[in-house]
Amino acid sequence: MVDQKAVLALLKKQAKGTYIGLDELQKTAETFDCSLRDIETIALSYSILPARFQRNGLSCSEQLKLFQTKVAIIGCGGLGGRTAELLARLGIGHLILTDPDVFSESNLNRQIFCTTETLGCNKVDIVSRELQKINPVLETSLHVSRFNTLSITTAEIVIDALDSTTARKELSALCRKHSIPMIHGAVREWYGQVTIEQSANSLIDTLYHQTTENSLPPHVLPMTVSLIASLQVAEACKLILGTGSPILDGWLQCDLLHSEYEHIKTGACR
């Protein structure tokens, strides 16, 4: 068992004010023969902030909440890959990544971890590998398969990054069954939408009352993906930190072509 007092004394000695660098954290982990994750937990618990999160502007207690949260991302392509990257940079401690697919050439326009070198590779494997380069303390659980109960049941929040109406409604039902909030995002061309579905509502049924699937995949612009993924991560952050959100009673529609953004309340659709 780690001697927390000894660890804390060394951390305070190595810290520059209230911040400590990754090298110092790693050296402390080596000194006490424990994981970097254990050392970072102690640092955050005693108001010593890892320097890589300095520009987040969050308190140590807020950063610790993010660090202790597990988020499931269903679909690791355009929205999923971008949300995974942003969550890792934000400081989320554990990501559950689920996707059965491999990268293909048509993904290069919008999927951040798709490169000419990763074509043909499993998306979850590549995303997990690259996230470790961003946040080495991040833990990942990988499911190279279609989503199922194991993909979500240990998570506090689920990110819907799917591109199928049928699959999205199935995920919605699964999340409501297990009372896990689901942050929905969808994109097409210049347009996108974001909402938060919780067990008390069924917003996905409202948004997708028809289950007809298009035979061809939608056209998707990279900037639309980046915007909607950023909004999904912002909503996840607010849920974790308990700051509240105006879209809990509806959804946000985004039109990048005309620079129009509209908050639609659920009551407006009844």
What does this structure look like?
- The protein is α/β, with parallel strands linked by helices.
- The chain has two domains: 4-64, no CATH class; 76-269, 3-Layer(aba) Sandwich (Rossmann fold).
- The protein is 38% helix and 18% strand.
- It has nine helices and ten strands.
- The chain has an eight-stranded mixed β-sheet with strand order 5-4-3-6-7-8-9-10, with helices on both faces.
- A hairpin with a 2-residue loop joins strand 7 and strand 8 (191-197).
- The protein is globular, with a radius of gyration of 20 Å.
Summarize, please:
The protein is of the alpha/beta class. Helix content is 38%, strand content 18%. The mean pLDDT is 94.
Given helix and strand content, the structural type is alpha/beta
The CATH architecture name of the largest domain reads: 3-Layer(aba) Sandwich
Q: Main β-sheet: number of strands, strand sense, barrel status?
A: 8 strands, mixed
Mean pLDDT: 94
Domains (count): 2
Broad CATH class of the largest domain: Alpha Beta
By CATH, the topology of the largest domain is Rossmann fold
Q: In whole angstroms, how far apart are the ends?
A: 58 Å
Order of helices and strands: HEHHEHEHEHEEHEEHHEE
How large, in whole angstroms, is the Cα Rg? Answer: 20 Å
Strand percentage lies at 15-25%
How many E-type strands? 10
What is the CATH H-level superfamily of the largest domain? NAD(P)-binding Rossmann-like Domain
Spatial order of strands in the largest sheet: 5-4-3-6-7-8-9-10
